[in-house]
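seq:
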Amino acid sequence: MPLSRGDEIKGRYKIIDILGKGGMGSVYLAEDWLHKEKCAIKEMLDNFSSDEERKDAIKRFQNEAQILVNIKHKNIPRIIDYFVENNCYYLVMKYIEGKNLQEIIMERKDGKFTEGEVIDLGVKLCDVLSYLHEQKPDPIVFRDIKPANIMFENNGNIMLIDFGIAKILQPRKAGTITGTPGFASPEQYQGFAYPVSDIYSLGATLYYLLSGRNPENSTPFNFPPLEHCVSDVEKVIMKAISMKIEERFQNVLDMKRALIYSRKTEIKMITEMREKVTPEEKVAPEEKVISEEKLEELFLVSEHVTGQSTEILRSTKSLSKKPLNKYIKLCFYITGLIILFICLYSLVNDYYRDRKIDHLCKEAEEFLKKDDYKNAIDRYEEVKKLKSDSIEAFRGAGKVYLKKGEYEHARLSLERAIDIDKDDEESYLTMAKVFWEQKDIFNAEIWYKKVLVINEDNIEAINGLGDCYFARKDYENAIAKYKKLLERDPQNIPLRMKIGYVYKEKKDYTNAIKWFTLALKVKDTFTEARLEIADIYIIVKKYDNAIEEYKKILKYKPQDVEAMSGIGECYKIQQNYDNAMKWFEETLKLKDDSVRGLRGKADILIVKKKNLKEARKNLDRALKLDPDDSLNYYSLGNYYVVKEDFNKAIENYKKSIKIDPDIACVHYDLGRVKAYLKKYDEAIEEYKKAIDLDPLDPYVHYNLGKAYYNKENIEEAVKEYNIAIKLKKDYIYPYHGLGLIYLKIGKFKEAIGYFKKVLEIEPGSDLAMEAEKGIKFAEFYGSF
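struct:
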């Protein structure tokens, strides 16, 4: 949704007017109420359908916006801020009052400029482009030189506006132009932009000014020769707009020199500066004369210190060329004493004021430690009264509001602190934490990077940036940041753990276990590392290994409820329900509000279909203790399956998936309910999701095959049954399923082979009896 007049964004910028609209967004005139000044805000829309494209564009937007923030030039509007809000990207810049060159062209009758005007403007624009192209480590390419992007301020100063940063927020497609048709160079039509591309666009702009012919309204690259040029400016322009890159000026300084020397008439490039020297008056040795300039200097110093005019000096100024008399000397002595007194008073006053500020700030910090937010804020407000631009007060208040969870107040306080000191890395760091707490990973990353611009070795910023990369699944960069910190502190357990978490999230379980084990090498009794290793063993279905890890924890921490309930969980999955119940009950004896213990005990009662009232009571309590635990809803779904209330079962499975969509067993059991209700398409969809999360589960593949069989998709059914057998060779159900398929399609020999496999694996089972019937049918019909 486009912004309207009166709307506020970032809690700071109020929209006054809409300056322009386009396909990629709008430009707004806004008021920055923090600084009480107008600004221009460029809005760029998120037009991406692919998360990968969006992720790439966000990264490029951050990088390019940060580059623009660091640009300081009189002919380029200052970038004040950049941020993301409601899926839109915003650049905030100084508002330029004046007219753009396109408007000035339209005001002229023939739309033309004189050669002298064109040369002068070209030289000025070359200077601006030279500044951009000489930036390190990489040149900045403007991308979109044209009259509409050249502003003339009311004082006559030119401004280059509207960097082509918006182009990076368009989905990348073959042939996407990175400039304006007519003014864009040939290579820009292919999606590339170089410093020489700016030279081409500048040449096209100067051509427009001389000819009155707008390239945007003409066939691209069509520039007929200019006639009646007195100077050589036409040659300069035609060289700049050469189709081939190598035939253009290779840098803007070469073009600038060519423009300067393009006049046929004599141009005097250097004006002589003549210094007029007035002979000093001769003064008799006995007459001491103070010069007017010295008096003026003294007058200004006095006025600066006292804040008011000094009448004594003003009256003395008229006597400056006369000998000093005693009266004048006395006046100077008195003035000097007054100035000295004022300076001393100011120093003493500042000293005691600063001491009081330090004391108040320390008090505020102590109150913050005690979570006494009101008193902490009150102390910082007192500091502001003593010193209105105290960075300590605004930064400190930002920290209080952050801890209090009042993020908007925190941001405003920190913005004021940064306004006071642009290089205060602590304020930038706290701002990053504000966005992190709001789960605004994009802006948190921006602010951590700003800290690193000031101090590339800031440990908290490197760590925070690693966390941002981890949160947005940029695993390689996250690991790189954590390893960079490990180089400084190789024995740091939390960093080793973080790298382990990243590998676990990547499902690279071998490396995850390696890094959790490295944490244990520093401290063998570090429980969290063993719990993570055990959890990985559960994920990869190595339940005995998981139990072993849990028991290691219990050796040095015998009452660890996480380890005890973990053992219960492993036995439950192995269907060793008696042992599982024993461990869950031991857990609840030590901690009667253990969610895992309550849920685990309920799960066993549900599987055994006994004492369902107690099971429901345990689940209700678990849900009350942790309403955000997806497994609680999963277990409740299983409870309703046993009660044959399938609608409520589906409802709770979906609640579980909404909280955590990455648990395979929830999708699997939801699929089974859908299949039971003969909703095979929906069942197939859930089974596929389960397989995406856990492709090695033979039971899911079998049930998917069965759903395909019921849909009469025999080919897919056979494929899934075979995968199930490959994953678990003693799993009798897919053999039986294949027997039924081959019996149905008349391949009796193959059917008999699969039915016999069932008898071979589990000869006394119910399914074996069904297999025997299948063999008899196959033998009977196969005999014809």
